[in-house]
Design goal:
single chain, Heat Shock Protein 90, two-stranded antiparallel ribbon, 7 strands
């Protein structure tokens, strides 16, 4: 008697997946269509700015300022469309056996020059004997870098970022702990919502995209934060029961 119910639930779930896939496809197509005329507008604004830039006329100077405003807003739209396309695209992960600590170290090495400039001390406690996980290294790198840069933005006057990896009962985990401004309850509740942002001009898609990538790996992301006391982001990833045959020695 339970088999038809199970099949009905599975069919309903697949229908939701198909609906989401279609919506994502249509939204991505719309974004691409918007990018085409936007590129034409940007090109013509650039040409107009170049033409007006050589004029000493007070009127042309005033017009040039308005052109610069349009150029700036066009760039903002371009960045928003790029972020949206990255968020909406359907990901087919290229999973490879990976050392989580090594992947994190690569992101931190990339980030260190920016950390020095921002007066942020990076302290890492990366375990050297973690079990192997399966990662799409490119997308995971992007998700983790987004989280690290988000921590940097929470510490405009400098601070400390502690990064640690460790094993768990069901897999491995990564903590990112910053000494930044922290978040109130309303911000914590909505921080992974698409288009929610506390930064002026932010798209509000960076953290939702990072969460989508981590969840696509079968993992989870949690956040703890208090105003004035910093933020801790925890990523948990499963360890596969068996690795692909080609990865075994």
């Amino acid at each position: 008697m339970s088999q038809p119910t199970h099949r009905t639930a599975a069919d309903a779930n697949q229908k939701l997946v198909d609906q989401y896939t279609e919506i994502a496809r249509l939204a991505g197509g719309l974004a691409h269509e918007i990018k085409n005329p936007l590129s034409v507008i940007r090109l013509n604004m650039d040409l107009l700015a170049e033409e007006l830039g050589s004029s000493d006329s007070p009127r042309d100077r005033r017009v040039l300022k308005k052109v610069k405003i349009v150029e700036r807003e066009c760039q903002r739209l371009q960045d928003l469309l790029d972020d949206f396309l990255n968020f909406a695209k359907i990901r087919r992960l290229r999973l490879e056996p990976s050392d989580l600590s090594a992947q994190v170290r690569g992101v931190l090495d990339f980030f260190r020059p920016k950390a020095v400039e921002a007066r942020i001390e990076v302290v890492d406690y990366l375990s050297s004997n973690l079990p192997t996980v399966l990662l799409d290294r490119e997308s995971f790198h992007g998700a983790l870098l987004n989280l690290v840069l988000n921590a940097q933005q929470a510490m405009p006057g400098g601070g400390q970022l502690v990064v640690r990896t460790y094993g768990t009962a069901g897999g491995v985990a990564l903590d990112l702990i910053d000494t930044g401004c922290g978040m109130d309850e309303n911000t914590r509740t909505h921080i992974f919502d698409a288009f929610f942002s506390t930064k002026a001009g932010g798209s509000g898609l960076g953290l939702p995209t990072a969460r989508k990538i981590i969840e696509a790996h079968g993992g989870s992301i949690d956040l703890q934060s208090e105003p004035g006391r910093g933020t801790q982001v925890t990523i948990r990833l499963p360890v596969p029961a068996r690795l692909p045959a080609e990865s075994r020695s």
